[in-house]
Design goal:
5 helices, about 15% strand, rod-shaped
Length: about 190
């Protein structure tokens, strides 16, 4: 095939050879511009997707802060009026799978809306599959004022371990943290 091309080029007249020499750089330049544009658009799209994901996660985090503030008001009200904190929070839900839990400063579960069997048990060493100490991390996050911890946990209604953003806040006048979380598999999907 190379010989055929060379022979074909040799059989061209001078005018056609000059025209071919003038068009080849334009053709290769056009191809280079098209490839460059494709690569840049692809990178820009990836950037936009990441920015959109980050925005959705930020919104999810803000939702966790707000619902925890409301739940913390319920807890404070019950404590001030000698009410039953656990009964007051037991059926409080938000979103598709949102619920609350309470741990004391030593990692003992005081309340868990979905798993009452955990209540009264020590959970300080609860660890996710990636080695993250969940309760220790939430205690530290709540005490620092940030409150957030990302870890993996079993999503209710499934057997899957799913990435979850946990949020915990201190309960005034106690050594408790009130926590909740949100799975982010829907964002990634």
């Amino acid at each position: 095939p190379i010989v055929t091309v060379d022979v074909a080029v040799m059989n061209l007249g001078v005018r056609n050879k000059v025209l071919l020499l003038a068009l080849l750089p334009i053709l290769f330049g056009g191809i280079a511009v098209a490839i460059f544009s494709y690569v840049m658009e692809s990178a820009s799209l990836d950037e936009n997707v990441q920015e959109f994901r980050d925005k959705l996660i930020h919104e999810r985090r803000q939702e966790l802060v707000h619902v925890t503030e409301v739940a913390n008001e319920i807890v404070n009200y019950q404590r001030q009026h000698n009410g039953d904190v656990n009964a007051a929070l037991r059926d409080v839900r938000f979103g598709k799978a949102g619920y609350f839990y309470i741990y004391n400063g030593q990692g003992k579960n005081i309340f868990h809306a979905l798993l009452p069997k955990l209540e009264g048990t020590e959970q300080i060493n609860m660890t996710d599959p990636k080695g993250i100490k969940i309760v220790q991390g939430l205690l530290k996050a709540a005490r620092s004022g940030d409150g957030f911890l990302t870890y993996y946990y079993q999503k209710p209604g499934t057997s899957d371990l799913v990435e979850k953003i946990g949020y915990a806040a201190t309960v005034p006048g106690t050594d408790w943290i009130l926590g909740t979380g949100a799975y982010i598999d829907d964002i990634d999907a």
